[in-house]
Design goal:
The protein is of the alpha/beta class. The protein contains 21 helices and 14 strands. Strand 8 and strand 9 form a beta hairpin. Helix 12 packs across helix 13 and helix 18 packs parallel to helix 21. The longest helix is centred in the last third of the chain and has 25 residues.
Length: 595
């Protein structure tokens, strides 16, 4: 409803300003402070004071006089407060919010008929997913969910680096060494943990082997790279045997988050279909192309980038950047927008990519990047290559273990009488533990470096995932006690929504909660526009505070509650359940029915 109210206010302001012959290019719409009872405010009088030759409060009063509130559906009152115009909600605003939010799809925006590809994670298939990179799949999945809720047609892609030197080294090592050559056992019984030992062995051999042995190994590695470049099917199959096995294990880890993908796009695809060769030819034609230091490069200094983009080696093998350029042109051909989630260490490459695509004649407006800083544990940063880091699996295992302990410690203090068996405890431990990891990571602004702290992530009392999840469980408990199915729309449970009297929800706690619910679709819209899912997390914390205030102050099922008030409050609880469940779904956090 807030979106509708905002549009209504914008139309009213534009009409008033036009009548007064003031410009309408900036309406000054903003969120009022918490102590102001309006849901929307305008500071337009500040901007117009000079032109009007009057003080801002006088201009605000003049504009207010030009707006007839009786013509508005969702604005019940217009007040001036100094230079501000404050728009207060009408009864219809609250009533329509209550009715609309009892639908299970509440918060989802209309279809925009716009396709978006979201590329995220895309970690090299050289071994297990590590904690340091965990922010990518968590943010990427949340961005995709957010755009989906905002009405976009979303596809989730993982771009597989299966053509670089790393994969050639991995393939050579996998074919060269035997199990008995490896120094350690797999850390887990999953394929990527098994095969990464060959990659580590190969790197150690290249660093410490004799000169003759290393030279022979390098010749085979070069042969693999050349074979891929030439489109040799046998070479492709050799590399794919390693890549596909490792990738299958990495998928297993990512599914635990969960982060799932519509397509795994291999970079060799753009070598085998000729796109890379075609692109190299076009790059050589550019004025910025030079051959120096035994490689073809683009000089981008005139475009504000100090470092050249190398796109072809002296042996005629392409680089990752070259193939990624072809990949992005393919995106432009197939999608209206292309969003890529990247670590901050790829900022330079992102600028080089964007500039080069423009030089090649592409419109890069559809291309957007979400840059993030890395996740650290208190122990320090993690390494991928030597196997000394902390795997994402380890973090998730510990999260579940810690959550299980928290759930078991709280069993005696539970209010609900639904006895939890071991299976229930295990389910809740998974929901809370993994939810805590996801929420803690996605709730921070992506560009800020974070250190993951267990005490904060699993704090049931503070504004963390368990705090918000508990609100959802509480709504389910109230609805179940009233004989209602929480996950079924009220309209399908013999509740006459038209008969509900929203004006009976007249306490401050009830109105605050309804107004917060009304803002949810707007928050989805704004967060999607900014590609910032952490705004949804911020909203869930505010929502949880408002619901808990309602829960404390407004009994729903007590014997002395008027039946009509009871029905209205039950509808408010159902609307709250849909709101918090859908907000958590955007973040990729499960919403437990019981905790």
């Amino acid at each position: 409803m807030f979106l509708s109210l905002r549009d209504e206010v914008a139309d009213a302001l534009e009409g008033a300003l036009s009548s007064l012959e003031y410009p309408t290019d900036d309406l000054g719409l903003e969120e009022p402070p918490e102590d102001v009872p309006s849901v929307l405010a305008s500071s337009v009088a500040f901007r117009l004071a000079s032109e009007a030759g009057a003080a801002p409060p006088q201009v605000a009063a003049e504009i207010a006089d030009e707006i007839d509130v009786e013509d508005l559906e969702y604005v019940g009152e217009l007040q001036t407060q100094g230079p501000y115009l404050n728009f207060l909600p009408s009864d219809a605003y609250l009533a329509d919010t209550l009715a609309e939010a009892t639908d299970e799809s509440y918060g989802a925006l209309p279809d925009r008929e716009t396709s978006v590809v979201v590329e995220h994670t895309s970690a090299n298939p050289t071994g297990p997913v590590h904690v340091g990179r965990a922010r990518n799949p968590i943010i990427g999945d949340a961005v995709a969910n957010l755009l989906d809720y905002a009405g976009y047609d979303v596809e989730r892609h993982y771009y597989v680096n299966d053509a670089g030197r790393q994969m050639a080294v991995f393939t050579w090592a996998y074919e060269t060494f035997d199990e008995e050559d490896l120094e350690d056992d797999p850390e887990r019984d999953r394929i990527e943990y098994d095969l990464v030992r060959y990659y580590r062995k190969g790197n150690a051999f290249l660093e410490n082997g004799s000169e003759a042995e290393v030279e022979e190994a390098e010749a085979e590695i070069e042969s693999i790279m050349q074979g891929l470049e030439a489109g040799n099917e046998e070479t492709y199959e050799r590399v794919s045997e390693v890549v596909d096995q490792v990738l299958s294990g990495m998928k297993g880890c990512l599914e635990r988050l969960p982060a799932e993908f519509d397509e795994f796009v291999k970079e060799t695809r753009f070598m085998r279909n000729g796109d890379t060769d075609d692109l190299v030819g076009r790059l050589k034609e550019l004025d910025e192309a030079v051959y120096e230091e035994e490689a073809w490069q683009l000089e981008l200094e005139d475009h504000g980038i100090d470092k050249n983009l190398v796109f072809l080696r002296s042996d005629d093998t392409s680089l990752y950047a070259t193939r990624d350029l072809a990949h992005h042109e393919w995106k432009f051909d197939n999608y209206d927008r292309a969003v890529t989630v990247l670590g901050e260490d790829h900022k330079l490459q992102a600028r080089q990519l964007d500039t080069t695509l423009e030089l090649l004649g592409n419109d890069t407006d559809p291309l957007e990047q979400v840059l993030y800083s890395y996740v650290n544990l208190p122990e320090g940063k993690m390494s991928t290559r030597r196997g000394t880091g902390v795997d994402l699996d380890d973090l998730l295992d510990e999260a579940i273990d810690r959550a299980r302990g928290e759930v078991e410690d709280r069993l005696d203090d539970r209010i609900r009488d639904d006895d939890l068996d071991n299976e229930d405890i295990e389910r809740i431990a998974h929901q809370v533990g993994i939810g805590a990891v996801r929420y803690d990571i996605v709730s921070k602004q992506p560009t800020k470096a974070i250190t993951f702290e267990w005490d904060q992530a699993l704090d049931f009392e503070a504004q963390s995932a368990p705090y918000v999840q508990y609100v959802h469980a509480r709504t389910c408990g109230i609805l179940e006690e009233a004989g209602l199915e929480p996950e079924t729309d009220l309209a399908d449970q013999e509740i006459e929504l038209e008969a509900l009297e929203a004006d009976l929800l007249e306490t401050e706690a009830e109105e605050d909660l309804l107004e917060t619910i009304a803002r949810f679709p707007f928050v989805v819209d704004e967060a999607a526009e900014d590609l910032q899912p952490h705004q949804i997390a911020t909203y869930t914390r505010t929502f949880a505070d408002r619901f808990n205030a309602f829960y404390r102050e407004c009994p729903v099922l007590a014997d002395d509650v008027d039946p009509d008030v009871r029905e209205a409050r039950l509808a408010l609880v159902a609307a709250s359940r849909h709101t918090v469940a859908n907000a958590l779904a955007i973040l990729g956090v499960e919403a437990p029915r019981s905790m």
